[in-house]
Design brief:
It contains four helices and six strands. It is α+β, with helices and mostly antiparallel strands. The protein has a single domain, classed as Nuclear Transport Factor 2, Chain: A, CATH 3.10.450. The chain has a six-stranded mixed sheet with strand order 2-1-6-5-4-3. It is globular. It starts with a helix and ends with a strand. The mean pLDDT is 91.
């Protein structure tokens, strides 16, 4: 009986540690998204891109198809949002942050950009992966 109680206590501790770990991951991901929102709203597209994995393996999937690589994704943003009037003020509504496995989550959300050239709204799904101790977007689909 003592062994069963001990096993249950250990399982309970492991479960609470796991939940705490997941909460910390979600807060860290939210912090990345907040930094991106602030950089975007400051017309700092390179700062915005700091949330993305700086790799040729980064994938962005939008209305015009797939863009591969960090540099190509930055160029895409620079062409689509050439001035402060185009970047405007960004807000997110995060609908879900869900664990895929250890070190990977997906984020479902909505973006809202208030800007001089007309507001823009859409949805997105991001795949975050912990790389070298930092949470980075490795795939983005936005429309």
């Amino acid at each position: 009986m003592k062994k069963i109680i001990l096993a249950l206590c250990i399982l309970s501790l492991f479960n609470s540690y796991s939940q705490t770990d997941e909460e910390a991951d979600k807060k860290a991901i939210e912090k990345v998204l907040k930094k991106q929102r602030l950089a975007w709203s400051d017309d700092d597209l390179e700062g915005y891109m700091e949330g993305y994995w700086k790799s040729d393996s980064l994938k962005f999937y939008g209305l015009n198809g797939i863009v591969k690589g960090w540099e190509n994704t930055l160029e895409r943003y620079q062409k689509a949002y050439p001035t402060k009037d185009h970047t405007g003020k960004l807000n997110f509504k995060i609908n879900a942050i869900s664990k895929i496995n250890d070190g990977a989550y997906y984020v479902l959300g909505e973006y809202h950009i208030k800007r001089e050239v007309g507001n823009a709204d859409g949805i997105f799904m991001l795949i975050f992966k912990k790389i070298d101790g930092e949470w980075k977007i490795i795939a983005d689909t936005s429309s």
